[in-house]
């Protein structure tokens, strides 16, 4: 299981998995007060979800908890999260081997420096799922009657796309076939380092690779 924030220009791979991930779901209600009858709640559909987790950026690689060897410098990683916080376009948040693959904005990023752990930077991050706004048009069937369509909901739990390695495949060939650009092989490798291993040229037939 690995955690990623991806857009069309970069892939951010969290070096240490959080111990837990909290997903907040709420349902919207509109309260109407009727004279002599009191208050009534009318459901308005599901509200946007929030995803919260905490982890840290280690200064020194440790195989017991780091997900890959070439971990980023903690200060550089923190600055990248800060830049994502200011982004005007959503990132794709992916937890591999799960159904979590949703567009999000970073809405909060808290940083902690702890004494006695020089160089390590701890953080807590809150993501808010994003969905493209869609407008429903009203259609008049007669001057007295109007039918309105409800707003469709975007399915935020999309399953990660995978590719099964075939004879003669390479990461650049797969990137060309699946992503339209052979130079994007590094993104595929970063998302599948645990499956492939340290050598990106040593992929094996039958391996299932998660696609960006």
Automatic annotation (TrEMBL):
UniProt protein name: Terminase
Segments forming domain LysM: 161-211
Coiled coil: none
Lineage, uppermost ranks: Bacteria, Bacillati, Bacillota, Bacilli, Bacillales
A Pfam entry, by short name: LysM
Source organism superkingdom: Bacteria
């Amino acid at each position: 299981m690995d955690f990623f924030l991806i857009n069309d220009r970069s892939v951010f791979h969290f070096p240490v998995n959080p111990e837990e991930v909290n997903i907040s779901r709420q349902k919207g209600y509109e309260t109407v007060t009727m004279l002599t009858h009191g208050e009534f709640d009318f459901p308005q559909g599901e509200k946007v979800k929030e995803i919260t987790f905490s982890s840290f950026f280690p200064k020194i690689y440790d195989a017991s908890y780091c997900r890959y060897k070439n971990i980023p410098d903690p200060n550089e990683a923190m600055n990248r999260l800060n830049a994502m916080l200011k982004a005007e376009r959503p990132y794709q948040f992916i937890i591999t081997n799960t159904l979590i693959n949703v567009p999000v904005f970073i809405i909060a990023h808290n940083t902690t420096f702890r004494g006695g752990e020089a160089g390590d930077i701890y953080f807590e991050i809150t993501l808010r799922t994003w969905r493209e706004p869609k407008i429903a048009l009203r259609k008049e069937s007669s001057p007295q009657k109007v039918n309105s369509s409800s707003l469709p909901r975007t399915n935020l739990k999309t399953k990660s796309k995978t590719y099964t390695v075939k004879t003669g495949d390479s990461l650049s060939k797969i990137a060309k076939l699946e992503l339209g650009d052979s130079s994007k092989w590094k993104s595929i490798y970063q998302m599948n380092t645990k499956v492939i291993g340290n050598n990106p040229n040593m992929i094996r037939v039958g391996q299932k690779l998660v696609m960006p």
